[in-house]
Design goal:
Mean pLDDT: 95
Number of helices: 14
Largest sheet: 7 strands, parallel
Oligomer: single chain
Structural class: alpha/beta
Shape: globular
Number of strands: 23
Helix content: 25-40%
Strand order of the largest sheet: 19-20-18-17-21-22-23
Low-confidence stretches: none
Distance between the termini: 50 Å
Strand content: 15-25%
Radius of gyration: 24 Å
Number of domains: 3
C-alpha cells in the first residue's frame, strides 16, 4: 500500500483489484474521477464498490488477493457485499521463505522505563497477582485482591495494585489431556510474568488442576514471591481470605522496592491484536501497526501476531516470510488443525466475520484475514508458538490462538507479552489483566465518538497523513505506555473480567 493515500472518495488498494473502498457515503451518481466510474447505488463508508463488471463465479480481488467469488454477475459501480460475494476454494502459493528478509537495525536503540526482575525479564507494570487454580476458588481470589484498595497500598507507591485472576476452568478435564496442559501453561505463564512482582495461587483442594504440578511448571521465582493456599486445608472461605491477605502483605515490601529504570526496547514483547474490525481496518490501523511492528523489530524487540482463524486465507503471505521451512510448515499445520477442529464442532472458518464486521464493510474471512495480517509489517517470521507457550525468539513471531479477543490476548500475555496493541474499527471495549492494552482507532469518526476508549487515532491516514508518521505515533505510544502512562482501558478498569484461558477438550 502507498505511504500515503490519495485524496478521493474511493480508494484502490492494488492495481489488480476488482473493488474500491468508499471513504465516505456514496450516493447513486457519485463520480470517482480517477476510475472513470459512477456509483449505481448507495455505498456505505468502508464498503466495497465494483471497479468493473464482474462475471458470476469469478474471483474478486482486494489487496491484489482473492477475497471471495461473485455469487452473481456484478456490474461496475455496484455495492459488493454479502448479497453477491461468497467463499470458494482456491489454491494458495505458499512460496515458503521467498520474501523473508532482514530489516535494517536501528542505529540508536530506543529505551523505555521498565522494571527489571531477578530472572532478567522486564515488566511494564508492577502488580501482585492472585491466581485461582479452579473456578471454585475464584470468589476467594477476588476477595483477597479486593481488600487491597489504593488507600491500603499507599505505603507502596511503586506497586500498581493487586489483581485477581479468576477463571472458569480447572476441573472436569482429563488431568493428562490437552485442555489441562493448556490451562496449566496459561496460569504458569501469568504466575511468572514480569508485570507481576509476585503471585499467590489459590486452590480449593480437590480439583483436577492441583497446585503442586502447577508450581512445578512455574519454576523458580524470587524467594517468598510465589505462595499458595488451599481452601480445604486452611478451613474454608473466610480463613483462606484472611491467610491470602496476610500472604500478599508479606510480598508487598519486596514488590515496593522495585523502581523503573531506563532499559532497551529489545526487552519488549508486544502483542498485535484486533477486534471489532471494519472496512478501514486493513487500510489504516492494521498497516500502521505493521509499520510500528517493523520499528520494534528494528530495535530488537519481539512482536506477536495471533488469531489463527483470522489469518485463514492470508496464511500464504506469512509463509513467504518464514525464516525456515519448519516455521512455515508449523503454521500450515495449525491452519489444517483449525479446519478439522471447526468441522468436528459443526462450524467452518467462514462463520467469522461477525455481524459488526459485516456492518463495517467486511464480507468474508478471506477479506478480514488479508487486512488482519498487515498488522505484522514486513519482517521475517521467526517462529510459530502454541497457545500460551513461552516466547523466546526475537523479531516477528506468530502464536496460535482463537480469534475471540479475550482468549487470544490471554494467550499472548501468558507467552510473555508485556504490552498489547489492539486495533478496532467498530469500537471494542477490552483490556488485558496486568498488561496495558493500547487501542488504535481505524477511522476518525470512531476516534471522535469513542475518544474516551481510544488511545491512538489512525483514521487521519484517509486525510493524507503519511503511513510512516502514524506508525511512528504508535511506536512512541508503546514506549510511553510501557513506561507507565496508563492506557484508556486501564483507566476504565478493564482486564480482570477479560482474563480467559482457552477452553479446549471435553468437559466432563
Amino acid at each position: 500500500m502507498e505511504a500515503s493515500l490519495p485524496q478521493t472518495i474511493a480508494i484502490r488498494l492494488h492495481a489488480d483489484d476488482d473493488v474500491l473502498i468508499a471513504v465516505r457515503q456514496l450516493l447513486p451518481g457519485a463520480v470517482i474521477d480517477s476510475e472513470n466510474l459512477s456509483a449505481r447505488e448507495p455505498i456505505p463508508p468502508g464498503h466495497k464498490i465494483a471497479a468493473r463488471d464482474i462475471e458470476a463465479g469469478a474471483p474478486v480481488r482486494r489487496y491484489g488477493q482473492i477475497i471471495g467469488f461473485a455469487k452473481t454477475g456484478i456490474g461496475a459501480g455496484r455495492h459488493v457485499h454479502v448479497h453477491n460475494l461468497g467463499m470458494g476454494e482456491f489454491a494458495r502459493d505458499y512460496a515458503i521463505g521467498q520474501e523473508a528478509r532482514e530489516l535494517p537495525k536501528a542505529e540508536e536503540p530506543a529505551v523505555f522505563m521498565g522494571y527489571r526482575r531477578p530472572d532478567g525479564k522486564v515488566g511494564t507494570r508492577n502488580y501482585l497477582a492472585v491466581i485461582a487454580s479452579v473456578n471454585c476458588s475464584a470468589t476467594v481470589a477476588r476477595a483477597i485482591a479486593r481488600h487491597f484498595t489504593r488507600e491500603k497500598l499507599a505505603a507502596f507507591p511503586s506497586v500498581d495494585g493487586v489483581i485477581p485472576l479468576p477463571q472458569p476452568l480447572g476441573c472436569g478435564h482429563d488431568v493428562h489431556g490437552e485442555g489441562m496442559r493448556l490451562l496449566r501453561r496459561t496460569l504458569a505463564g501469568y504466575a511468572r510474568h514480569p508485570n507481576f512482582a509476585g503471585a499467590l495461587l489459590v486452590g480449593l483442594g480437590c480439583e483436577q488442576n492441583q497446585i503442586d504440578p502447577l508450581v512445578e511448571r512455574i519454576g523458580a521465582r524470587e524467594p517468598g514471591m510465589l505462595r499458595q493456599l488451599i481452601m480445604q486445608t486452611e478451613g474454608g472461605t473466610s480463613a483462606t481470605v484472611a491467610q491470602g491477605i496476610a500472604a500478599i502483605e508479606g510480598m508487598l515490601p519486596r514488590a515496593g522496592e522495585y523502581r523503573r529504570e531506563a532499559l532497551p526496547v529489545s526487552h519488549l514483547i508486544v502483542g498485535l491484536n484486533c477486534g471489532g474490525s471494519d472496512g478501514y481496518s486493513g487500510i489504516t490501523a492494521n498497516p500502521a501497526l505493521g509499520g510500528a511492528s517493523d520499528l520494534l523489530v528494528a530495535h530488537g524487540a519481539t512482536t506477536v501476531l495471533s488469531e489463527t482463524p483470522e489469518i485463514y486465507g492470508a496464511e500464504h503471505l506469512l509463509t513467504r516470510r518464514a525464516r525456515t521451512p519448519e516455521i512455515a510448515r508449523r503454521l500450515i499445520d495449525r491452519i489444517a488443525w483449525w479446519k478439522e477442529y471447526c468441522a468436528r464442532n459443526g462450524g467452518e472458518l467462514d462463520n467469522n466475520p461477525s455481524a459488526g464486521n459485516k456492518a463495517g464493510g467486511l464480507t468474508t474471512i478471506l477479506e478480514k484475514s488479508l487486512g488482519g495480517v498487515t498488522k505484522s509489517g514486513a519482517s521475517a517470521l521467526n517462529g510459530v508458538y502454541s497457545y500460551a507457550e513461552p516466547i523466546d525468539a526475537k523479531g516477528f513471531v506468530f502464536m496460535d490462538t482463537p480469534g475471540y479477543d479475550p482468549v487470544s490476548v490471554t494467550g499472548q500475555a501468558a507467552g510473555g507479552a508485556q504490552i498489547v496493541c489492539f486495533t478496532t474499527g467498530r469500537g471494542s471495549a477490552f483490556g488485558c489483566a496486568g498488561v496495558p492494552t493500547i487501542k488504535l482507532a481505524s477511522n476518525n469518526a470512531l476516534f471522535e465518538r469513542m475518544r474516551d476508549d481510544m488511545d491512538v487515532n489512525c483514521g487521519d491516514l484517509l486525510d493524507g497523513t503519511p503511513l510512516t508518521e502514524i506508525s511512528r505515533r504508535i511506536f512512541e505510544a508503546i514506549i510511553r505506555h510501557a513506561s507507565g502512562e496508563k492506557t484508556r482501558s486501564e483507566i476504565h478498569g478493564y482486564g480482570n473480567d477479560e482474563f480467559l484461558p482457552w477452553q479446549l477438550g471435553a468437559v466432563m
